[in-house]
Design a protein that fits this description.
With 158 residues, the protein is an all-alpha fold. It has one domain. 84% of the residues lie in helices and 0% in strands. Helix 1 runs antiparallel to helix 2, helix 2 runs antiparallel to helix 3 and helix 2 runs parallel beside helix 6. The chain is elongated and about 60 Å long.
Length: 158
Amino acid sequence: MDWLWLLAAVLVLVGIAGTILPMLPGIPLVFVGLFIAAWLDGFAKVSVLTIIIIGLIALLALIVEFVASFITVKKAGASKYALWGAAIGGLIGFFTGPFGLIIGTAVGAAIGELLAEKETSQATAVGIAAGLGFIVALVAKVVLLLIMLAIFAYAYYL
């Protein structure tokens, strides 16, 4: 059983890192870790209802992650090339650190828009929107992650 507690803690810690790093499914890993911890205690301290609430917040975080970036880029009138460019740029930017993610997403979207033969001003607007969408999604995910952890901690320790 001790290794299961360790597994739960590792999942939560990796999930926290994954909330910032897009290559890891952060929010789902945190949820699974919290679920395992509650289950190991027989849901005595953290009830099934509390886990369901945390699960709904995790689902909301996943929805926000996809919708925030998509909406900001689409409102800027992005083409499909810009959406692909943002994804590829974010992937490349991942290897250069947190700011690389934002810059990579923005530059990738702008390059994609230029490949779609759009005006430079349009490509710039789409690139900025992609970067802002990434930041909005990241902030929302972090806030929802902190809410999940706070609810769990409150239920477990009080």
